[in-house]
């Protein structure tokens, strides 16, 4: 079985896995990081979103062989104490209902705010479009992302 070198949440990591094993299962089954969720398995719902080299991706369809040497950030690595501005806004706005999709939602929102610190509602809609929330908390998700956005400097 091949060994892959990755940087997971800021830590160099060696992982022995089959080349076609999806990153999601590497994260959950081999690394025992359970914040990243399985939703659909076909990259349509966003529950498994992580950052690879700063870009939000659906980990359920990315084979480990394609990310050799890359940096992966999971929800556990987004902030040391769960105090990333998006996580704080999620708590302040009380976004989750069931909470299952929230890690993927948060990871997508954090990547958006990294790219566009002051997004418009339209930019938020486009960036979050592929993240499904079965409970329908979309208005609170929008409010939390707007709340987490950095104020423009004058």
Describe the structure.
The chain has helices at 23-30, 75-78, 85-93, 102-115, 121-128, 138-148, and strands spanning 3-8, 11-16, 49-52, 55-58, 71-73. It is of the alpha+beta class and 154 residues long.
Helices and strands in order:
Layout lengths: L2 E6 L2 E6 L6 H8 L18 E4 L2 E4 L12 E3 L1 H4 L6 H9 L8 H14 L5 H8 L9 H11 L6
Parallel strand pairs: 1-5
Antiparallel strand pairs: 1-2, 3-4, 3-5
Output the radius of gyration: 15 Å
In total, the number of domains comes to: 2
Order of helices and strands: EEHEEEHHHHH
For this structure, the CATH topology of the largest domain is Ubiquitin-like (UB roll)
What would CATH call the homologous superfamily of the largest domain? Beta-grasp domain
Unreliable stretches, pLDDT < 50, 5 or more residues? none
Instruction: Output the strand order for the largest sheet.
Output: 2-1-5-3-4
Please state the structural category.
alpha+beta
Structure annotation, total helices: 6
Write down the overall mean pLDDT.
95
How is the biggest beta sheet arranged?
Answer: 5 strands, mixed
Helix content: 25-40%
Overall shape: it is globular
Please give the CATH architecture of the largest domain. Roll
Strand elements, count: 5
DSSP strand content: 5-15%
